[in-house]
Specification:
- The structure holds 2 protein chains of 2 kinds.
- By secondary structure, chain A is an alpha+beta fold.
- In chain A, 22% of the residues lie in helices and 29% in strands.
- In chain A, strands 8, 9, 10, 11, 12, 13 and 26 form a 7-stranded mixed beta sheet that branches. A 6-stranded mixed beta sheet of chain A has the order 38-39-40-37-31-41. In chain A, strands 42-45-44-43-46-47 form a 6-stranded antiparallel β-barrel.
- In chain A, a hairpin with a 4-residue loop joins β24 and β25.
- In chain A, α4 runs parallel beside α5, α11 packs across α13 and α16 packs across α21.
- Chain A is elongated and about 115 Å long.
- Chain B has one domain: Folate-binding superfamily (Folate-binding fold, 2-Layer Sandwich).
- Chain B is built from 1 helix and 6 strands, in the order βββαβββ.
- The longest helix of chain B is centred in the middle third of the chain and has 9 residues.
- Classes of the chains: A alpha+beta, B mainly beta.
- At the A-B interface, α18 and α22 of A face α1 of B.
Chain lengths: 971, 100
């Protein structure tokens, strides 16, 4: 067990609980952590600074921000890849490993690729692999090496869920700005939600060095206490706002829950990101931001190193130096990029401790130790001009290099909201310049860094947000006046390109200065182009530490004024979201018919038709083919019963009912007699078939129109849109779920129905085929339709859904003596195919028009208008390009083609099979297929290519296949 | 996620709605040229600016009109379809059927 030799005394480490030790492993070695440690902190305490290797060149990497803002600390935890080691808490028995190495973390064979870096210039993906075959060779090699981490195929599914939240004012960021805003908004009476990424409130107050009495961390605690006193502030810690969407809808991730938060007004107080400097070997373990060192010290109680060099361009650097000295780290030198740094109290204190301060100097190179696993020194030289230093240099021994050369706003959420950003020349930073309505910003994200100003600005932003949300308070708080503290923090060009390279601008993508310079030289002189060409900013840190440096280089290389440039737009999410967060608990609605339980009791194998559960067939799965066959024959020869409740039902009522039906469907309905049904075919305005069914005229002013299960909701909506324009005197009701329905079908169906229905004359003369009657079946009010889908004498019986099960029971009992057999969707599909009936969406596609499908007879000729009519007329005047025909296989014992097997002629595809089955009723294989128009003549033969490439020959035969004179359905 | 103000149901999440296309005037389907009909069916004006379009609140199947700036995605107002369509639309029979 490796102990924490870098652990500091109890004055430090406010996040850790020294009473509780936790054992975990990293790279299969055992380590000990305290409760509250993150992985990186526990490893740092044990002097393990290398956490992973980089994506392209496999360079060792370690802590950079200590705040989860960079990707140098991505590790694999069990089966979970890409875990931020500087944020993930250590839990018992955690098994952590590094990423991107071949042999071991310490000795990686793959890092030899660095030797070939000259052959992997920027954009090499676009330039290499042109020779045929080279990509085939390289793709598997690259795929094997690329990628971050490993996805475990046996990774367990975790529990995730979601929750809705509503707030008057949402505040992102629990630092001094956010806390001040929350207090002000709450005092105006608003309901406030405060979202903070870390487990504690306070932001930079929790780790920075402050000299005020009691320290700034005390001030953070005071603010947090004031927040806790206000019942109308809901505090969410360990919560990250990953996106700010239209109308202030925020996605907030906390643990395994995704919150969908709607706020009237939002205050973004998300702070800023400290920016690294660019010099040779600036990516190696031991080189970190100044604030990273301070987080290690104050939050986790870890000494960041033994000997340090500090690269400075602001006064914060001297706070870092003092912090390092306080915890026993020797500060060998401070290289200050500024020629004449202000003599602040801190600077004098650092000098007073005997630390060498080199004004006007830069770090030009970090000296790596063996294997580049750590640094052993830093080379410092005098600055001559922007980005240039003297040759003569001094090298200082160090194992730690802290960079305090500037900041940039953590403005991603403001980007999402549509804020515009501009470059502030005086501060050398991009700042928001215009905010959209209902969005407010405060603190360093808004360019305000001086703590007093931050709190004033936060207070005012909270007040303004509450006012915007409709909550006025007594007095208007003052705006920030005077210095906001942004100047003198950020250096304008902390980039020192080195002739030998390894001066990284983007750590995620291993992009060096020369890569960006070459990209510009190749003509990609706009940041949008340079980003995509070089991939700068496209890695996991999404440009947090590379975007501004890239723009600085672009400005220098092109001569364009930096003030006119911008960073690329940041888009959600700000942090990686797991698929589990987006999925939440999966709610899969199911729709059951009224007879659902009867199907299960009868042993049905259920299938999904959209959301509906329908019986596919009745019987054991293994007996599928036999069951379907027997069900088909039962309907043909005896009597069967199928649940058709899912089919759409629309009640169209009113004086204009017939006119309405006339305009929506292709046939003629104005003169349809009461008591008769007619086939309905619906086409869209392009003339493509979209739905079909049957229209039953129950009354002069009442049509009951059926539709397909999956189409009815769309049909209903479209009917309403049509009448919103036509203003016909008609009402349309979608009564699909209000009615349960069955089809009682087979030569024995009349006799069965007669036992239960006594108020309708069921004789063939009184109730002919395509008739429709209202009556009573087993005492239940019913709509009776004689329709021809399965091609036998049969009755569709529609009853109120609450009576569906009773109807089913009555029919099954009445038919028991005759041997009634329930049949399912699979048998029905065979029965309808034997009659040559099409199924919308199977035998038709998005372009099929009636003439192609042999449905010209369904088109009325004299209607002034029906939907799709004009388009159908245009298509009718043109030659067909394909035709749907019925076919039978020449070899009745041969293999059965499947849907979408192609119909071919020579080497050309002329169409496809849409339905096919070995027909139980006919003893041969039949189906429907699209063929070329000149192949559509009866008797002509065409080829079908089936699975495996074999060709079967089919012959065009007349439709319907079964009972061509329709005698059986018209009995 | 955007909020759309339904004239019938009030402000609802945009996920509760379906877009129904531009409000387009149908040319006389009997008398217009094939070309004019094809333009009507297949082409949208796709204006960059304020457009009138159909929206449907799915849960209540309520269709209405929205005026929206397609550049800024601001919805200027929403109103019942009856504001634009108040008269019964009648189609007159063709003099001679068939396409031109």
């Amino acid at each position: 067990m490796i102990a924490g030799i870098n652990r500091l005394g109890t004055a430090y480490g406010r996040l850790i609980d020294r009473e509780t030790s936790i054992a975990f492993t990293f790279e299969e070695r055992e380590y000990s952590a305290f409760a509250g440690d993150c992985i990186a902190a526990a490893l740092a305490a044990a002097d393990q600074w290398v956490l992973s290797r980089s994506f392209k060149f496999r360079r060792p990497r370690g802590i950079l921000t200590m705040a989860g803002q960079d990707s140098n600390t991505l590790v694999q935890v069990g089966s979970e890849p890409n875990v931020l080691a500087d944020r993930r808490p250590v839990t018992p028995a955690l098994a952590v490993s590094a990423q991107n190495y071949d042999i071991s973390l310490a000795v990686d064979a793959g890092s030899a690729i660095g030797l070939f870096s000259r052959f992997l210039p920027v954009g090499f993906y676009y330039k290499a692999f042109y020779k045929y075959g080279s990509w085939k060779f390289w793709e598997p090699v690259i795929r094997n090496r690329a990628g971050l981490g490993r996805i475990g195929r046996d990774a367990p599914h975790g529990y995730f869920d979601k929750q809705y939240l509503f707030a008057d004012v949402a505040i992102v960021g629990g630092g001094p700005a956010g806390l001040s805003a929350a207090i002000a908004a709450a005092d105006s009476g608003a309901e406030v939600v405060l979202i903070e990424e870390w487990p504690i409130l306070g932001g930079s107050l929790t780790y920075s060095r402050f000299e005020r009495d009691g320290g700034r961390s005390v001030m953070g605690e005071e603010l947090a206490a004031e927040v806790a006193q206000r019942a109308n502030i809901r505090v969410m810690t360990d919560a990250t706002c990953s996106g700010l969407f239209a109308d202030n809808w925020l996605s907030v991730i906390k643990g395994r829950r995704l919150y969908k938060l709607r706020a009237k007004a939002v205050v973004v107080a998300s702070g800023s990101h400290e920016q690294p400097a660019v010099f040779r070997n600036n990516d190696l373990p031991g080189i970190m931001n100044g604030t990273a060192a301070q987080r290690l010290i104050r939050l986790y109680g870890v000494r960041p190193g033994r000997k340090a060099v500090v690269l400075a361009a602001n006064d914060d650097a001297y706070g870092v130096a003092l912090d390092l000295l306080e915890v026993g780290t020797a500060v060998e030198a401070v290289a200050d990029l500024r020629e004449n740094p202000e003599e602040t109290a801190r600077l004098r204190a650092v000098r007073g401790r005997g630390v060498r301060i080199l004004a006007g100097h830069a770090v030009v190179e970090a000296i790596p130790g063996a294997g580049k696993l750590a640094i052993i020194g830093a080379t410092v030289a005098r600055i001559l001009a922007e980005g240039e230093t003297e040759k003569a240099a001094a090298t200082f021994e160090c194992d730690l290099l802290c960079m305090s050369t500037g900041y940039g706003p953590a403005g991603a959420l403001l980007h999402h909201a549509g804020a515009s950003f501009g470059y502030d020349q005086a501060a050398n930073m991009f700042q928001p310049t215009a905010l959209p309505p209902h969005v407010f910003a405060a603190g360093s994200v808004n360019g305000t860094y001086r703590l007093d100003a931050v709190m004033i600005e936060g207070h005012r932003a909270g007040w303004a947000a509450a006012l915007d949300a409709g909550f006025a308070s007594e007095s208007e708080p003052p705006p920030v006046t005077g210095d906001r503290g942004a100047r003198g923090l950020t250096h304008g060009f902390p980039i020192f390109p080195h002739a030998r390279g390894s001066d990284f601008v983007d750590f995620d993508e291993d992009l060096q200065v020369k890569d960006l310079v070459a990209g510009v030289a190749e003509g990609y002189d706009d940041i949008e182009l340079l980003k995509r060409y070089s991939t700068v900013g496209m890695g996991p840190s999404q440009g947090r530490h590379s975007a501004v440096a890239a723009v600085r280089l672009l400005a220098r290389e092109t001569g364009f004024d930096l003030a006119g440039l911008s960073v690329t737009t940041q888009r959600p999410p700000t942090v990686p979201e797991k698929f589990g967060h987006l999925a939440g608990r999966i709610f899969e609605p199911e729709r059951h018919t009224a007879m659902h339980h009867r199907h299960l009791e009868l042993g049905a194998q259920m299938m999904l038709a959209g959301l509906w559960h329908r019986p596919a067939f009745y019987g054991a799965k293994a007996d599928r083919e036999l069951a379907i066959r027997e069900e088909v024959l039962a309907v043909r020869n005896n009597v069967g019963l199928i649940d058709v409740s899912t089919l759409g039902g629309l009640d169209i009522r009113g004086p204009d009912a017939a006119e309405f039906v006339n305009r929506l469907y292709t046939s003629a309905y104005a003169k349809q007699p009461v008591g008769r049904s007619r086939y309905v075919l619906m086409c869209d305005q392009t003339g493509a078939i979209i739905d079909d069914g049957v229209a039953c005229r129950l009354h002069e002013e009442h049509f009951y129109v059926t539709a397909t299960t999956s189409g009815v909701d769309g049909v209903y909506r479209m009917m309403l849109q049509s009448n919103a324009q036509w203003r016909l005197d008609v009402d349309v009701a979608n009564v699909t779920a209000a009615y349960a329905g069955v089809n009682l079908a087979g030569p024995g169906s009349r006799d069965v129905l007669a036992k239960l229905c006594h108020d309708v004359d069921l004789s063939a003369a009184a109730f002919p085929y395509m008739g429709t009657r209202l009556g009573t079946v087993a005492g239940i009010p019913a709509r009776l339709l004689r329709v021809g889908f399965v091609g036998e004498l049969g009755y569709e019986i529609h009853v109120p859904a609450s009576q569906g099960e009773a109807l089913w029971d009555a029919l099954m009992e009445a038919g028991a003596e005759a041997g009634i057999r329930p049949f399912g969707v699979e048998a029905q599909r065979v029965l309808r195919l034997e009659k040559g009936h099409i199924i919308i969406g199977q035998d038709t596609d998005g372009l099929t028009h009636p003439h192609e499908a042999g449905m010209a007879r369904a088109i009325a000729q004299n209607k002034p208008y029906f939907m799709g009519g004009r388009s159908i007329a245009i298509q009718a005047a043109r030659p067909l390009t394909r035709q749907l025909v019925g076919f039978a296989l020449a070899d009745p014992e041969g293999p059965v083609p499947q849907e979408c097997h192609l119909t071919i002629r020579g080497s050309d595809i002329v169409g496809r099979v849409t339905s096919a089955v070995r027909s139980p009723s006919l003893g041969k294989t039949i189906g429907l297929a699209y063929v070329a128009p000149d192949q559509a003549k009866l008797g002509s033969r065409f080829d079908i290519r089936i699975a495996g490439g074999a060709i079967v020959q089919a012959e065009v035969v007349p439709l319907p296949f079964y009972d061509p004179d329709n005698k059986r359905q018209e009995m | 996620m955007k909020i759309l103000n339904c004239p019938l149901n009030g402000p609802r999440n945009i996920s509760e709605f379906a877009w129904g296309g531009e409000v387009k005037a149908m040319p006389d389907p009997v008398r217009c040229s094939d070309r004019a009909w094809a333009d009507y069916v297949f082409l949208e004006a796709n204006t960059a600016g304020v457009v009138r379009e159909w929206w449907c609140h799915l849960a209540t199947s309520y269709w209405f009109i929205a005026e929206r700036n397609t550049v800024t995605d601001d919805v200027i107002r929403t109103y019942p379809a009856s504001e634009l369509f108040a008269e019964r639309i009648q189609f007159t029979a063709p003099d001679k059927p068939g396409p031109r």
